[in-house]
Specification:
Elements: E1 4-9, H1 19-36, E2 40-43, H2 57-66, E3 72-79, H3 85-98, E4 103-108, H4 115-122, H5 132-142, E5 163-167, H6 170-179, E6 183-185, H7 194-204, E7 216-224, H8 228-246, H9 260-263, H10 266-275, E8 279-282, H11 284-298, E9 302-306, H12 312-330
Parallel strand pairs: 1-2, 1-9, 2-3, 3-4, 4-5, 5-6, 6-7, 7-8, 7-9
Helix pairs in contact: 1-12, 3-5, 6-7, 11-12
Length: 331
């Protein structure tokens, strides 16, 4: 069977734009994705990033879920070291109560920010990623039918929102396998340990009440257009954004530039090739072939498609092309 396709959105803020427009675009994309047959629409927690508007992730999930009908909406993910497990249980218990059967909760252990921003979020940096496994277990208990803790998450207790573990290394793979949870690997920006993480997860997986067998979701960039030239032009916005981020100068998502990739040299080009190694850029035929080859190589159960394009209409077109390729694979 072909892998299912889902959407990962960071609600990008483009140069000259603002968060309000980003939120309108995110909802519009989700509505289109629902009609095109995507399984999920996830939003990611980032803080202090000029080009990412999804910091208040649970609030934005409510906005998207309220404007759609049946597509699953969730976090890809909530950076749990930034929060009390009880607060997240209450937030996602609220979401599940508002939109029953449609909410996913993906959990990551990175801060989603720099150290200064992390300190502003948490105040006490002594509690962080080292406590991630215990925090995940505590959160799962808050949302279980029979919590062991005296404190109750209201709403939250007994709602059993599906929990995913996110990661870009072997740590998350090991934890997801030990807890019997589905695993989402951030191959769309950190593909180096992808195959090792998949193998560790599948080989050590222990069935749980939530999941009987391993389930792997992989991030994958798609920059699709009707011509190769236009696809590479549109992809240059994301390429510039990555270079800016790795240079310590994050900005709003820049406008595309013709020939940007071809002008890159040396370490910068090598860095970009590495971080965007799991990508398809080109025509529908090129994207179809890359998606199919990636699924065959990894055995992914689901792909989380991400596409950071400057122009919203072209971003919609890219996701539409990817959805069309999925239908062709299925047939």
């Amino acid at each position: 069977m072909p892998a299912a396709l889902s959407v990962l959105d960071l609600s990008p803020i483009t140069e000259g734009g603002d968060a309000a427009q980003s939120f309108r675009n995110s909802l519009d994309l989700a509505q289109h994705a629902e009609n095109w047959g995507y399984r999920r629409f996830w939003l990611a927690e980032h803080h202090g990033m000029p080009g990412i508007a999804s910091a208040a992730t649970a609030v934005l999930i409510a906005h998207v879920a309220g404007g759609t009908r049946h597509i699953r909406v969730g976090a890809g993910g909530i950076m749990l070291p930034n929060h009390s497990p009880l607060v997240i249980a209450e937030q996602f218990g609220t979401l599940e109560s508002l939109f029953p059967g449609r909410i996913d909760l993906g959990l990551g252990r990175a801060p989603g920010s720099d150290q200064r921003t992390a300190h502003a979020l948490r105040r006490n940096l002594q509690s962080g990623s080292d406590e991630f496994p215990q925090d995940v277990v505590e959160l799962m208990d808050f949302m279980s039918d029979k919590p062991r803790q005296a404190v109750r998450a209201v709403p939250g207790t007994g709602l059993n929102v599906p929990i995913w573990i996110l990661g870009s290394s072997l740590f998350g793979a090991q934890l997801a396998a030990a807890l019997g949870l589905p695993y989402a690997f951030a191959s769309h920006f950190a593909p180096a340990q992808m195959m090792d993480a998949i193998n560790v997860y599948r080989s050590t997986f222990k069935p749980s009440a939530q999941l009987a067998r391993p389930y792997v979701m992989l991030g994958f960039n798609v920059f699709a257009a009707d011509t190769d030239e236009d696809a590479w032009f549109r992809a240059s916005a994301m390429q510039q954004a990555f270079v800016n981020l790795r240079s310590g100068q994050p900005r709003q998502l820049p406008a595309p530039v013709s020939g940007y990739y071809d002008r890159l040299q040396g370490p910068i080009r090598a860095m970009l090739d590495e971080v965007l190694g799991c990508s398809a850029i080109g025509t529908p035929e090129t994207v179809h072939a890359r998606i199919q080859a990636f699924v065959e190589r990894t055995g992914a159960d689901e792909l989380m498609i991400t596409c950071q394009m400057f122009d919203h209409a072209h971003r919609l077109r890219s996701y539409e092309i990817a959805a069309q390729m999925q239908h062709q694979i299925a047939n």
